[in-house]
Automatic annotation (TrEMBL):
Ranges where the PAS domain occurs: 37-109
Keywords: Ion channel, Ion transport, Membrane, Potassium, Potassium channel, Potassium transport, Transmembrane, Transmembrane helix, Transport, Voltage-gated channel
PANTHER family the UniProt entry points to: POTASSIUM VOLTAGE-GATED CHANNEL SUBFAMILY H MEMBER 7, VOLTAGE AND LIGAND GATED POTASSIUM CHANNEL
GO molecular function: inward rectifier potassium channel activity
InterPro entries reported in the protein's UniProt record: KCNH_animal-type, PAS, PAS-like_dom_sf
Gene Ontology CC terms: monoatomic ion channel complex; plasma membrane
A biological process from GO: regulation of membrane potential
Major location (coarse): membrane
Gene behind this protein: LOC112541910
Official protein name in the record: Potassium voltage-gated channel subfamily H member 7-like
Record membrane topology: Multi-pass membrane protein
Organism name: Python bivittatus (Burmese python)
Amino acid sequence: MPVRRGHVAPQNTFLGTIIRKFEGQNKKFIIANARVQNCAIIYCNDGFCEMTGFSRPDVMQKPCTCDFLHGPETKRHHVAQIAQALLGSEERKVDVTYYHKDGKVISFLHLCQNKF
């Protein structure tokens, strides 16, 4: 007999569909809730955790602008572009420099999709 987890509401099945779709593609990603303050992270996959060095509990409920990954080489205008995309409804790709938990530089493409 399959185990049921949580409520079977449309938003939960939608998130499950997104997670299943991208997990198999070797993608590193987070999902955030755009309806709460700071667009809190509600899911991060294992690939994201491995890439950044942070555990899932370290990442959960942090702002999706990934402030915890900022460092000396992170450009303010890139951070502003990400924040602006999250406030609006357009998709934006930003090549931004972030930092691993141990301090080494990670350069990656931050894709902002604000979908309700």
